[in-house]
Amino acid sequence: MLPPSRRDFVSLTVSESGSYTNSKQWRRQSCWRKWKQLSRLQRSLILFTLMLLLVGGITTSPTLIGHWRGENGYDGKPPFVVNLKNEYRPILPELPSEKKDYHRRGPPVLQNHLQIKTNVSGLLGVENHGLDLKNADKGGKPVISWRGAVIKEEHASDTDTKDTEIQDDPASIALAESRLEAVREAFRHAWKGYKNFAWGHDELKPISKSYGEWFGLGLTLIDALDTMWILGLKEEFAEARQWVAKELSFDKNVDVNLFESTIRILGGLLSTYHLTGDSLFLEKAKDIGSRLMPAFNTASKIPYSDVNIGKGTAHSPQWTSDSTVAEVTSIQLEFRELSRLTGDPKYKLAVMEVMKQVHKLDGKQDGLVPMFINTNSGLFTHQGTYTLGARADSYYEYLLKQWIQGGKTEKELLDDYLQAVEGVKKKLLKKSTPSGLTFVGELSHGHFSPKMDHLVCFLPGTLALGAHYGLPADHMELAKQLIETCYQMYAQMETGLSPEIAHFNTHDGSTQDVDVKIADRHNLLRPETVESLFYLYRFTKDKKYQQWGWEILQNFNKYTRVPTGGYTSINNVHDPASPKPRDKMESFFLGETLKYFYLLFSDDPNLISLDKYVFNTEAHPMPIWPQSE
Ligand code: DMJ
């Protein structure tokens, strides 16, 4: 006999369990009976419907699909992503969001970036430069924008996205799209010439339908890779990638210029790696990067200008042991990035040693540097000339851009940049007559020369970029004045294309602002003005910058386009009837000029967001390092 509690328990259990089993059995039997009573057609219909439901359910289940595609595991990696430590992974563009944003242009993977919000006020890590920089902490305290207004940091970080409302009325969208298509068309035309007559060689000679060789490394093709990616030219990109994979070899007994091969080849490969995630480009970048290192084996650690990438030897030009200041100080973005990606500090150490030395050198005037530096002594030579043009230009550009790349912590770089901008204002700025255009001249042994290279037209863009990152508001004002001047260097020529060098009139009674010397009236399809128009448009959204760029593109098409394919530099911007083609398409026309046109005409502020990337001096976007690094 069981105790009462135990009995109750047993009887209850048996009874419940029994009734459950019975009812299940009963239901099964009754279902089966009903099923048998159905006609064959009815049964088939039901089975078919059930099948449909089952298949539909499986294919729409994100978990299952993700599993099949291996999204959570090994198979989910894009096939070509190299196995890097997490922090060195390429910064890949986000995948498109669910919401269709039909008016955003650009290749699919580069679209949709509305959600991005990063710290852009760019004031962290900066000490007092007469700005209220200390207040620029993450607490949303007031900071000074380039407009001079006090804004909250959370808003300051939006200069790319918020102040720059996308024009979404149908007319604006159609206009933007037609201009973007015009750039794609121009690219395809240039590419057609390169493909037909210069494939795998350095530069197209479009008139003679042949090619020119500089390093023998397919310079145009490499320089153009990320442009094709950004323009969404998939077929062209795939063909070029194939060439890089199959044909490109750096194991060649050839002398290359350290600076040119760094900014075009190393820079082009690194940016293409970051945009695509394709490890092929990283491997090639590592190869060329390490082959360029012998350039730094000098007594002073200031690199030689030339390296033989096959033999591993390096030297100065035959006639001197000097290097150019801009060249030795404009390779840093690329080598620093190579160190970050490989985990090997040697590249970064070599280029930062150059910066450290230049930072300390005597011979600067108000932050302005001479044009030459000696590889034996490490000292400036041929002192006395100060310019923002050839041989010094990108020194200034890279001071700012390294500071941005490194997360705004390297104070010496910022100090040197700010001092140099003050130097430009104090020593090199003047106004022309009769129109009062602000221009940047040169100092030569104490004498001011009103000569301005087209190369100087990088400066408005760089100043605007600095202002975007919280540098003084008057940098932006100067940027606006200078871009007007650079535009006038085009608009005042008969072809609407700028000469290589302009001389500005400053004397009373002059009737034109710009004079051009016979030796300077060529146009090499250079990018600097278009580059600056892009920055100014990104930050101000003033449509006139797009309009100016559009005029320039049309004039390139009118005077430099070669019907059989390609574009050519020309000899005379004064003569629309006979601009005299020079028979050369520089690689930077595809690497820079057309890319900046495209970015200028795009109304998507996040198509290569300036809060995520910093462009090297050849227009190859390098990622801005995360703050933790
Ligand atoms: C390019 O190679 C680079 O922009 C460089 O900084 C200056 N010269 C050309 C374009 O003009």
Question: Any overview of this molecule?
Answer:
The chain is globular and about 110 Å long. The N and C termini lie far apart (78 Å). It has 19 helices and 20 strands. With 629 residues, the protein is mainly alpha-helical. The strands form eight sheets. A three-stranded antiparallel sheet has the order 5-6-7. Strands 8-9-10 form a three-stranded antiparallel sheet. A three-stranded antiparallel sheet has the order 11-14-15, with no helix packed on it. It has a domain of 390 residues: Glycosyltransferase (Alpha/alpha barrel), CATH 1.50.10.10. The longest helix has 34 residues.
Features:
single chain, 629 residues, mainly alpha, Glycosyltransferase, three-stranded antiparallel sheet, 19 helices, 20 strands, globular, disordered N terminus, binds 1-deoxymannojirimycin
In short:
By secondary structure, the protein is mainly alpha-helical. It has helices spanning 4-37, 40-59, 62-69, 153-156, 170-197, 219-231, 234-246, 258-276, 279-292, 325-328, 332-342, 346-360, 393-405, 411-428, 459-468, 473-491, 528-540, 543-559, 587-601, and strands spanning 142-144, 150-152, 203-205, 210-212, 255-257, 306-308, 313-315, 322-324, 372-374, 380-381, 385-386, 429-431, 438-440, 442-444, 447-449, 451-453, 501-504, 514-515, 613-615, 621-623.
Q: What hetero molecules are bound to the protein chains? A: 1-deoxymannojirimycin
| Shape by Cα distribution | globular
The CATH topology assignment of the domain at 120-322 and 437-623 is: Glycosyltransferase
* Number of helices, where a helix is a run of at least 4 consecutive DSSP H or I residues: 19
CATH top-level class of the domain at 120-322 and 437-623: Mainly Alpha
What is the helix content?
40-55%
Biggest sheet record: 3 strands, antiparallel
Which sequence of strands runs across the widest sheet?
5-6-7
What is the SS-derived class? mainly alpha
Query: How much is the average pLDDT?
Result: 82
Uncertain runs: 1-29, 57-164
CATH architecture of the domain at 120-322 and 437-623: Alpha/alpha barrel
The radius of gyration computed from the alpha-carbon positions, rounded to a whole number of angstroms, is: 31 Å
Task: Give the distance, in angstroms, between the N- and C-terminal Cα atoms.
Answer: 78 Å
Strand-residue fraction? 5-15%
Number of strands: 20
